[in-house]
Design brief:
Strand 3, helix 2 and strand 4 form a beta-alpha-beta unit. The chain is an alpha/beta fold. The protein contains 5 helices and 5 strands, in the order E-E-H-E-H-E-H-E-H-H. The longest helix is centred in the middle third of the chain and has 13 residues.
C-alpha cells in the first residue's frame, strides 16, 4: 500500500485490495472511499462489492463514488460532502490516488485555501498546481 496523508481527515492511495483491509483498519482509518469504477483493469482489479464486504466485516465504513476522467461538478460536490460527513480518518482511493485527491481539492474550492490545498497535495506527492485557478 502507498497511503499518503493529505490532511488529518483525509489520506489517499492507489488501488487497494482485500488483503490490505486489515492493515488499513490497524492504521486507524474509519472510512474507505472508492473513486474507481469496476473493470478499469479487467478481472485483475478488485471489485467494489468485494472490498465493501471485506471492509464492513472489519467494522469499517465503505463508501463508493466511482468516476472516470475529470470529476463532474456533481462528483466534486458529493466527494466533499462524503468526506466531511464520514467518520475520520478517511482513506480515498482510485487507480493512482490522483482522481481522489483532485475531486477532494476541487470540493474545497472557494474557501480561500488554494495555496494550502496545493501544498498539502504536493507533500503527499501529487502536483495539483494546474488547479490553482480553480481553487
Amino acid at each position: 500500500m502507498d497511503i499518503r496523508k493529505v490532511t488529518e481527515r483525509l489520506s489517499v492511495s492507489p488501488q487497494i485490495t482485500e488483503n490490505d483491509l486489515a492493515a488499513i483498519k490497524s492504521l486507524g482509518f474509519k472510512t474507505i472511499l472508492c473513486n474507481r469504477p469496476d473493470g478499469e483493469e479487467g478481472e485483475m482489479q478488485p471489485k467494489i462489492i468485494d472490498l465493501k464486504s471485506g471492509a464492513e466485516d472489519l467494522g469499517l465504513t465503505f463508501l463508493a463514488l466511482p468516476f472516470a476522467g475529470a470529476p463532474s461538478p456533481e462528483v466534486i460536490e458529493q466527494q466533499g460532502q462524503m468526506i466531511a460527513a464520514a467518520d475520520a480518518p478517511v482513506l480515498a482511493f482510485c487507480r493512482s490516488g490522483t482522481r481522489s485527491i483532485t475531486a477532494w481539492a476541487l470540493s474545497q474550492a472557494g474557501q480561500g485555501r488554494g495555496p494550502e490545498i496545493i501544498e498539502a497535495a504536493a507533500e503527499a506527492g501529487y502536483d495539483l498546481s494546474g488547479l490553482a485557478a480553480h481553487l
